[in-house]
Structures are given as C-alpha cells and as structure tokens.
C-alpha cells in the first residue's frame, strides 16, 4: 500500500484531539462526507473524554493513531487484548479521506499488533443495520459469528434513533 502513515500509540495528551476526531468521523456534520457516518442512526457524541481516558487505561489496551506526512491525524483504531483474541473497535478514518486505503492500512497495523501480542484472532462488533460496513469487513477476512450484543444503553455512546443490535465478527490469524 502506498500510504505513508506514521502509526503511534495514543497518550493522555492526545485525548482532546481524539475526542474531536472520533466524534467528527462518526456523528459530526463532517461525518456525512464519508460513507461510515452513524449520524442517521444515533444522536449525541460517539465518545467523551472520560470514556476515552478509561479506554486508554484499560488493561492490555492501546489506541493506535495514524498521522500523515504533514502530521495530520488521518485515522485511529482501538485495540484490547482479551486472552488470545484482540478486540478491535472504534476504527476511525477522516471522512474526507475515506476510500483512500487508510482503513485497510489501520487494519493491517491491527493484524501486526495482534500477532505481536500472540493473539489467534481479531474480534469486532458492527451495528447490524450497517450492511455496507459489514460487507467491508467481510472483504477483509472477518466473518459473522452468529453472536449478538445489545447496543450500550448509555447516552455517553449516543442515543439510538431506532432499535440497534451489534453483530460480532471475527477474523482468524
């Protein structure tokens, strides 16, 4: 892949920029410029500073940031080791740069990190009505497990505008 992203782990000092970035990717007005927006499904923020700080402090967790050559944040992904599985969440790509390979690049970085952590599989959850996103992950080797998870009943993660369920997907390494 011809992208030249510098991948670094997020630190506490990155929280304000990451909160703005992730919320802009998922729910902000700018999210409507990309194909991964959730603005039509959920109201409110995707993440707040307290929740992001908690994620960064979680055991065996890291949030990888991808900066372009100019130093701009182009994408990020949250990873947490859970036994022999690496949970992948909150994959975020600048909406104006989606479909340019950044998401794929971050998934490759996640695969490499999983192997370094001696994980055998990666696991994600995707909102069930996000058919285009489910198909995107399937093209990258993820498969539906048949398992579902209720959408969090916590306004800190957004207020659903319809009933939502999360589908569990896995990719074997």
TrEMBL record:
<keyword id="KW-0012">Acyltransferase</keyword>
<keyword id="KW-0808">Transferase</keyword>
<feature type="domain" description="N-acetyltransferase">
    <location>
        <begin position="5"/>
        <end position="173"/>
    </location>
</feature>
<dbReference type="InterPro" id="IPR000182">
    <property type="entry name" value="GNAT_dom"/>
</dbReference>
<protein>
    <submittedName>
        <fullName>GNAT family N-acetyltransferase</fullName>
    </submittedName>
</protein>
<dbReference type="Pfam" id="PF13673">
    <property type="entry name" value="Acetyltransf_10"/>
</dbReference>
<dbReference type="GO" id="GO:0016747">
    <property type="term" value="F:acyltransferase activity, transferring groups other than amino-acyl groups"/>
</dbReference>
<dbReference type="InterPro" id="IPR050832">
    <property type="entry name" value="Bact_Acetyltransf"/>
</dbReference>
<dbReference type="InterPro" id="IPR016181">
    <property type="entry name" value="Acyl_CoA_acyltransferase"/>
</dbReference>
């Amino acid at each position: 892949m011809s992208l030249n992203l510098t991948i670094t782990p997020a630190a506490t000092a990155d929280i304000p920029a990451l909160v703005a970035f992730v919320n802009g990717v998922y729910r902000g007005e700018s999210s409507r410029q990309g194909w991964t927006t959730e603005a039509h499904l959920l109201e409110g923020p995707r993440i707040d500073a307290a929740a992001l700080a908690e994620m960064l402090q979680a055991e065996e967790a890291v949030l990888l940031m991808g900066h372009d050559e100019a130093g701009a944040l182009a994408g990020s992904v949250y990873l947490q080791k859970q036994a022999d599985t690496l949970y992948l969440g909150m994959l975020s790509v600048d909406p104006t740069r989606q479909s340019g390979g950044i998401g794929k690049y971050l998934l490759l970085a996640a695969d490499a990190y999983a192997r370094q952590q001696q994980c055998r599989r990666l696991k994600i959850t995707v909102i069930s009505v996000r058919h285009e996103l489910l198909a995107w992950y399937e093209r990258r080797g993820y498969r539906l497990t048949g398992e579902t998870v209720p959408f969090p009943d916590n306004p800190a993660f957004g207020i659903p505008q319809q009933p939502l369920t999360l589908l569990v997907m896995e990719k074997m390494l």
